[in-house]
């Protein structure tokens, strides 16, 4: 997240918002935010949303995700809003909507659905 310049904006049980400011380091050849950067903040928002509902001492890992890129990601900020759809003891389903924000307007640019796994009692894996 630090490499991308992403910031954790909001955390509530089952909900997380992450944002980043577009720039040359995360842009593709046409000047849009690269799909990899959009995917990274979307996955992180889903993961942190899932982690927010897990007991202390657990870690979280994404086991799979699907992302639909709906429009070019360009604007003053890119916002990823993750939320838990269904929390389980081991697996959690989460969804993230990614918006491009400019001039007070937001436009949906991507939708991610992820399955996340709770990790417990594994050396080096705690969040």
TrEMBL record:
Keyword Ribonucleoprotein appears in the UniProt entry: no
Enzyme Commission code: 3.1.2.20
Record protein name field: Medium/long-chain acyl-CoA thioesterase YigI
Domain Thioesterase: 30-104
UniProtKB keywords: Hydrolase
Source superkingdom: Bacteria
Keyword Hydrolase (UniProt): yes
Record-level Gene Ontology MF annotations: fatty acyl-CoA hydrolase activity
Catalytic activity: a medium-chain fatty acyl-CoA + H2O = a medium-chain fatty acid + CoA + H(+); a long-chain fatty acyl-CoA + H2O = a long-chain fatty acid + CoA + H(+); a fatty acyl-CoA + H2O = a fatty acid + CoA + H(+)
């Amino acid at each position: 997240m630090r490499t991308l310049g992403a910031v954790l904006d909001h955390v509530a049980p089952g909900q997380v918002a992450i944002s980043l400011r577009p720039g040359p380091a995360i842009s593709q050849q046409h000047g849009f935010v690269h799909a990899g950067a959009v995917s990274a903040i979307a996955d992180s928002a889903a993961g942190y949303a899932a982690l927010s509902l897990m007991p202390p001492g657990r870690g979280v890992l994404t086991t799979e995700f699907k992302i639909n890129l709906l429009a070019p990601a360009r604007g003053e900020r890119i916002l990823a809003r993750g939320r838990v759809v269904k929390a389980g003891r081991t697996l959690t389903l989460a969804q993230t909507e990614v918006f491009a924000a400019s001039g007070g307007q937001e436009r949906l640019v991507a939708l991610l659905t992820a399955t996340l796994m709770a990790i417990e009692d594994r050396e080096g894996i705690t969040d």
